[in-house]
Design goal:
The chain is an alpha/beta fold and 318 residues long. The protein contains eight helices and eleven strands.
Length: 318
């Protein structure tokens, strides 16, 4: 056996381990589960689709109540996991998306963007942007483009939102900025951006040896600015102006015990103080920690937060 098979070169205990031969062992996360034609708890149907030859997504359709041609808002969702963990196909994300889709009555496209370290930055951003452009391509599809029937039959392309947790929240912020300066296929617009427990860092709030800072360097080894890279620190001088966010409404969720809480609140204040013309809301959950509503969707506070997220989605589409 090659000695590199067992020699560890990067080790984040209980999270992820990289071996000398390039093998990656992920120690945190939930099992991969298949899509379901009808979730017993929510009635939501799901299936896996190809976005491109490089990556896939899981699409969710709520139980239709009015008619077979019912049109619904579209939520493009990006999962948590510090850009290197978890999956759109994991048990936790599948269960969570079923709850969100049922409560919000939306079609959701949960993106399986490629993970670091096998695919270091900015692959996650590029995959995430490509998924959003894929949704827009259904409006004016070019010859050879294979449309997804659930989106064609039930998607309202005038009501598109993006959302994500932790690293997914960071992706949502960066896609919102990009959509403020670049057009989306089909002329679609982002009505609402949902950032739950967003993964932002600054050198003021996080030391270089902190776990969030070390993970950022791990997934983005080419960065020269560390945690003051504009992709992870939206407050630095060379970051794109928050006034250019290309969405109409924003919801930011934080939790009392989450070490990212204060920086999430700082983000809300920074957006308010910019010249951005939209509306931003903050939900601060007492007594809870990072992404708590994903780890257990059945607690009282998780149910409340999911309802508040659904309320934001519905308000954004009015």
């Amino acid at each position: 056996m090659d000695s590199g098979d067992n020699e560890v070169v990067v080790d984040f205990p209980h999270l992820i381990r990289v071996y000398k031969n390039g093998r990656v062992e992920r120690l945190f996360g939930s099992p991969i589960v298949p899509p379901s034609p009808g979730d017993p708890a929510t009635g939501v149907s799901s299936k896996d689709i190809d976005i491109s030859p490089e990556f896939k997504a899981r699409i969710y359709l709520p139980k239709l109540t009015n008619s077979t041609d019912q049109k619904l808002p579209i939520l493009v969702y990006y999962h948590c996991g510090a850009f290197c963990l978890e999956s759109a196909f994991s048990f936790l994300d599948h269960r969570y998306l079923n709850r969100i889709v049922a409560e919000s009555n939306v079609i959701a496209v949960s993106v399986e963007y490629r993970l670091a370290p096998e695919n270091p930055f900015p692959v996650a951003y590029e995959d995430s942007w490509a998924a959003l452009q894929w949704v827009g391509s259904h409006v004016e599809a070019k010859p050879g483009f294979e449309k997804e029937p659930w989106l064609v039959n039930h998607g309202d392309f005038e009501k598109v939102l993006i959302g994500g947790d932790s690293a997914g929240g960071n992706i949502v912020h960066n896609l919102s900025l990009r959509s403020g300066s670049e057009s989306l296929n089909g002329g679609i617009k982002i009505l609402g951006s949902l950032l739950c427990f967003p993964y932002f860092l600054t050198s003021i709030d996080f030391k270089e040896d902190s776990l969030p800072s070390q993970l950022w360097g791990f997934v983005n080894p080419s960065t020269k600015d560390g945690v003051d890279d504009p992709n992870i620190n939206p407050f630095v001088e060379k970051a794109q102006s928050l006034s250019t966010l290309g969405c109409s409404k924003i919801l930011v969720c934080v939790a009392e015990k989450d070490e990212l809480r204060n920086i999430g609140i700082k983000y809300v204040e920074a957006v308010k103080n910019s010249e951005w013309k939209g509306e931003i809301e903050l939900i601060d959950v007492e007594g809870e920690d990072h992404c708590f509503q994903i780890f257990d969707t059945e607690t009282e506070k998780a149910k409340i937060l999911i309802k508040e997220i659904a309320s934001f989605i519905k308000k954004s589409c009015v």
